[in-house]
Amino acid sequence: MQAEADTPTRHGLAAGDAGRPTSADWTIDQGWSRYTAAEHATWKTLFERQTRLLPGRACDAFVQGMKDLPIGPDEIPDFRRLSEVLHQRTGWEVVAVPGLVPDEVFFDHLANRRFPSGNFIRQPHELDYLEEPDVFHDVFGHVPMLMNPSIADFIQAYGQGGLRAQQLGCLPQLARVYWYTIEFGLVQQADGLRLFGAGIASSFTESVFCLDSASPNRLRFDLERVMRTHYRIDDFQESYFVLSDLDELLDFTHIDFAPLYQRALTGPEHQPGDVLPGDTVFHRGDGSYHRSRR
Ligand code: HBI
Ligand code: FE
User: Fold this and answer.
1) Which residues contact 271 (CB under 8 A, 6 or more apart)?
2) Ligand 1 near 97 CB (within 6 A)
């Protein structure tokens, strides 16, 4: 999970209680041999629950990526083995970090095709929600999509764009694009809407909610519209945005974001549950879930 990008500095508290590691890029040794049987068992519980749930929900690229990676139920994956396969496919590698890292460190890793993944795993009592991205969120949720060339190129471009967005003072706008795609995105397939966002793919409850519940909106993705749209960090999303296909993200790596940022920095911002006259609506949510939580 990440803080609402309007407060990216939360990452100054990064890395949970592990504190700042000695290396400037915040990478640490994964410490694979130090995982306990209990930690592998937590992985197994999460892995088996999601693997039963995702067929028919996760997009084809996610299912294929998972199949092609050394990721299974019995053990927390070894990042070196993941990186061997991943590097062959899309030039990416997985590096271990103790938790959230400062934005500029994060962007620099992504710009160099290094995906920072938490090396810790959640406690059994926080199976369904945790504040920081753990190894299940990062490896089960994000890494299969990094096997897809379009996603792989987009996330590198996001890293490069992130450093620039910080200088232009429009990191919040760019972080919303990442949030509503890489973290919580849906994509249209011939056989229906499918999830690809890691925040959903690694969540038992949200994998169901995002596609089945009448409550959230499901809207066609539009870059400027999303740049203007706040998101929830503390609960299910009120709206999900749908890509026509994953290659749509590639388009964004060829356009100049600067004029878009300028426009997005002025003019209206939208609340997470808004539906706008210009939206293409797959499903107009009734908002029942979030109303019941107020
Ligand atoms: N650090 N390890 C880690 N993982 C993230 O997803 C992450 C981060 N730091 C910053 C961050 N995400 C977001 O604030 C940026 O995408 C804006
Ligand atoms: Fe994430």
Assistant:
1) 229, 230, 238
2) yes
